[in-house]
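Human: Note token order:
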Amino acid sequence: MILDVRKWEIYRVEMTTKEDLLQLGLSESKAAETLKNAKLSATISGILKEAKPLGQISKQKGILLYQLSTKLKPQVAPNAPLVVKYIMNDGIKTEPQLSAAIEYLLSHSVKGIEIPAFESSCGVGVVVTIDYIENAVSNVIATHKEKILAERYGFAVGKLLGELRSSLPWADGAIVKKEVDLRFLELLGPKTAEDLAPKKKEKKPEVVKAPKDAAKKTEKNEATTAQDDFSEGAETMDELLRTRAHFHAVGENYKTDGYVTTPKTAELLKSHVAAVGGKVVTRFPPEPNGVLHIGHAKAININFGYAKAMGGVCNLRFDDTNPEKEEEKFFTAIEDIVNWLGYNPARVTHSSDNFQQLYLWAVKLIQKNLAYVCHQRVEEMRGFEVQMSPWRDRSVEDNLQLFEDMKNGKFDEGEATLRLKLTLEEGKVDPVAYRIKYVPHHRTGDKWCIYPTYDYTHCLCDSIENITHSLCTKEFQSRRSSYYWLCNALDIYCPVQWEYGRLNVNYTVVSKRKILKLITTKTVNDWDDPRLFTLTALRRRGIPSEAINQFVAKLGLTMSQMVIDPQLLDACVRDYLNIHAPRTMAVLDGLKLTIENFADLNLPSTADVPDFPSDPSDPRKHSVAVDQEIYIEKTDYKPDDTDKSFRRLTPKQTVGLKHIGLVLQFVREVKDSKGHVTEVIVKAETLADGEKPKAFIHWVAKPVSAEVRLYERLFKSKNPEDAQALPGGFLTDINPDSLTVLYNALIDQSVAKSKVYDRFQFERIGFFCVDKDSTSSKLVFNRTVMLKDGGASGKN
């Protein structure tokens, strides 16, 4: 069936009136509100011009015509007159029929419409009698009768109605609901006082908010509310993308909002489906001019994760179209991080692989008078109220010659660009497709001096690679029209672009330019400085890739941009490390203790300590030295008893040693010439022989010296890029205490031969990871994250 699309478009430019809207059954206020929506008003105008010649518009028909106007998608619009006809001749009488009709048209916008199939799909001619409805309701009530009697009017009626919608798809919903209500009344009688009483809601435990100036308490509070922030997500990316990613099926691109079809779409989609074997194909397309950051972790997980969840494949494609900023180390680092996160690309490709094809397509666009060579300067093209280029209407022949001259190096940089005859959603006019750069490319050398832009390259490379789902962050939504326009202008397969919300994190910057500034000012050491939120930095700090993936999964799949506090990532890291990082003992700032009666205790020289004491079923353990001289944290001893809340060693208070069941009692202090305590002499007894102490502390004997780096937030403010709050710029917001280095921490011998990236939980302190700066003679540890309660320093 062929409809007059041209006539429909003419109707759309005419606006509807208030009287028309009232005729459709809208209220005065709803009509006034609708008139403010120019696009919807024009659509309603077209619908009414089709409907009025077909007869009187009753209230029921008016409601359906209005619903048609609001649900109409561009792919279905040309077939709107068909739906109007069936509404007006009573073929379509209910909202479910209308929804089914639109769904059929959407599904067949490329395949073609067959009237018998259309009528069958939306129940045209199906008569649902009252008797039929009564019988269906009786059957459903009987199925749930026992539970209805038990719960009475508290029973979830929506469940019944859902079942009835399945068995009576074309029945009038209002009639079905009325029949259900009547059967409830017959079965249960009128509502009693108890039925009418409001149901008590279970109170959720209140989260006590900390004072604004209590930084550490705030951190703890934010960590405890992590579950609330993760309410939209899932435990794994596979679960998230299987249950929350409602994308189109392979080959059904035309069903998505805004997708533009052409006479060649059906043929191109058929070839595309054959090329991919009906499987999902995605891609992750980073620019190789910097390292990846935490926001990229979301993009990697969504692109690779969706392909994996759907049994498809994902390519890693380097968008290497700007030779000025690209370096080999970034290519290597990006691929390394993708693998670290647990993903293996089906193919590693480069936009530069397609330079020749992209150039030929640019020539084709010029030949179709859809692109032109322009000599405006960059500053003249920027903004949203720019003047049209005076060179826009050059002849095709001149543009072909000038573009050839650009390719052959006859213009200086900035003297000429190739622009597309297109206006983006955001109002940007004629985006640049090619610019001149006399810079050798790392892969193609000096072959090219013209390079395609991202906007031009992105969609065309997606088409070349037969990408089924082009998944990108929301800022690319404004480029979707140019994406579809380019593919259709060249008569090539057009993928579907889907957007999701970008992930940002407070107290950091992720801009490549800003990170480079931090490096050049020696604020941080390099791209992998553990205070940054690049993925190489997070890995160096000891953040497990599994925790990052779970963090992304828990955030969910939303369109809104997310700005997350680091504590939410910390919560996922703790959860993972708590069951994967073996425990050991380490003393960061040691105080020597000598047990004067050690020989009398007849203790063994070593003791076995469980690696995972919270899991009694885990047999893994390590051996620690036991000696007369041990070391404890200086903060675990106080030389007086004035602080009654202090629970550890004092002259009058005993303390226990973890894992060996000894209780220490103060004997005397040893001080240096300046009066500083350098040693404490103690007496020990076994736990069985004395009173149980108020606290047990960690300790080390015969330890090995190590360097420990304690990291805090790099910036003091949540948003260091806020120009109003920080007029001096982000560099003025640096936290001077973001790094503390302890050069003589004491670790147990059992971890002395650890490898880079090995992770441990230092008991009562936090989680730590071996740094790459470690040597055979001295290990270096980075603090990954503190314990949930702040560690030993936060306890009495």
The radius of gyration is 35 Å.
